[in-house]
Specification:
By secondary structure, the chain is an alpha/beta fold. It has helices at 3-17, 36-47, 59-78, 84-93, 100-104, 118-131, 147-151, 185-197, 213-229, 235-245, 252-259, 261-274, 283-290; strands at 28-32, 51-55, 94-97, 109-112, 137-140, 160-164, 174-179, 201-206. It has 2 domains: 3-206, Rossmann fold, CATH 3.40.50; 213-290, N-(1-d-carboxylethyl)-l-norvaline Dehydrogenase, domain 2. Strand 4, helix 6 and strand 5 (137-140) form a beta-alpha-beta unit. The protein is globular, with a radius of gyration of 20 Å.
Length: 306
Amino acid sequence: MDAKSSFNSRKTTFKAENSILNANDIQTAAVLGSGTMGHGIAQVLAMKGIDVRLFDISSDAIDAALGKVRANLDKGVEKGKVEAATRDEALRRLRGTTSFDEAIDGVAAVIEAVPEKLELKRDLFSKLGSKLGPDVLLATNTSSLPISNIAEAAEYPERVTGMHFFNPVHIMKLVEVVRAKQSSPEAVEQTMELARRMGKEPISVSDSPGFASSRLGLVIGLEAMRMVESGVASAEDIDKAMTLGYGFPMGPLKLTDLVGLDVRLSIAEYLKEEVGAHFAPPQILRDKVARGELGKKSGQGFYDWS
């Protein structure tokens, strides 16, 4: 039997038996993309006893990500929220690499966290499908892009789910587990269990524009921007209204700065086309992005982070 026949045979066996690895038995995972979300996901996986390969195309990006993980863990130790032994073990389990093949070799799960560009994600999942077998969980951390569209690029689309984390990943408890049209019930359950293993509270949502959280959160965020734009109140006072008046843990404009104004603009433009005109980005958002005021990552957004 040649390699291609063997590969197809394993694919048929998987579909017939739905054999799947329990999330608690996952020993090794890859995280693709070392940015704001990627390094946070990698940190939490490593803290839960999973060996993690953190991939990025830039060695400088990898170095910066590993530095941020160490800083997060050191801060946790200083505050008494993380044991020193847990920090040291997590750092031992986390390894950065600029080699795609090295990152995914022998892993049981892959979580993709590259920029919110559909073709980039589709290209990655196509490559994953050509290199990994049908028993590997493939999850995409997107806040709005259609999971089914990403899944159809994969060799085994039934193994693809959405795993939408929230920033900062090592603190925020919620994970949206998104069911693509192709996702098998076993893959969805495995994703839910992996989120729980990571100490998160998962919710299961169908693949629809903006899912649940992005759609609701963006409506509030865009209206807050329009209020700043029209002079209703300052960003600080609008945020205070939501934190003190409605119990939000963080105001919508400060959250926008953490998420990234460019990210929110991209999501708003997508939802405007898919859902309706009430998601049209306000001019203040377009202007800030054009000026490079992207939020905390650039030092300036609706707040000054310098």
